[in-house]
Write the structure tokens for this entry.
Amino acid sequence: MSRTINMLIADDSTVAQNILTEAARSAKLPLRLSLTDNGRDCLTLLNAANVDLAFIDVHMPELSGTEAFWSARKQGIRTFVTLMSSPPAAEAVELAIKLRAYEFLFKPFTPADATAIINTYQRITSPTKVLIVDDSSTVRQLVQKIVAGSVFNCEVTEAADGQAALELCHKAPFDVVFLDCNMPGASGPTTLEWLFAAQPSLKVVMISSEHNRSVEDQTLQGGACAFLHKPFTSQDVDQVLHSAFGLRSPNLKVQGSEPSFDIAIEGSTIRLAHKSSGHIFEYLWCQKPPYLRNAVVRAAACGVAATHVAPMAAETALTQLRTARLLAA
């Protein structure tokens, strides 16, 4: 029986809580839910170190979601986190990337969006048995290190040639094989046929330092799920494995190339000018909480209320101060 997954929903919106609760039911996994509507309780629950999976809203009372997430990461908490916010939130997404969040959901989202993340968590954290086949021990070690950097929980075995790979596949099942195209003796395409004969459900990723479209087409038509050219990265492995297992890849990236604010730090003052509205926010910053003090807002004459932009300005100020190493990491 699968172990119970402890899932945290941290959002002060009842609507969002209901959507995520519905998503948890739809996932049909053994989930134990904890709910909170403020950031301080969110941090307390994360620091209890028994939360496996968390959906955290960026803006919450008492302590922001990003502050809670940041503090938990400082304590070494490795919870699988999805941050949530209403657009625009470019600075929050940047922080999410730095803190190695899995995903960022922009509101409004559907229960299906959250269910996909819950099911992905289950697959990513389950053991993925990987076989690396390459005639070079150096390359095998390098690929093993790259695979170890993946978000998937990979258990790696190595083989130096096609015959050794086939013998291993006869002894034990594997989920994924990274198979070199160019090996002495049995070639990559030949080994591919042998492996599928031994384990038809294998996910085989071909790897090569050469660009040969004919060989690529041959192996893909022969059943390989992907073709990676050396050198490749852990992010490339993540993308390939998401696709191989039918999972939705995360879209954790900054929406748009331009930041939302012009920022200036002068002594103990940080000033932010919101580009689209013209609102200006000024704070005294301090190295001890509360980090931002004596907020001054100079509202511009526009259709966007300064109060709507203020939470994003505060988050951006904190992110900038940390990036400049003016606050503790």
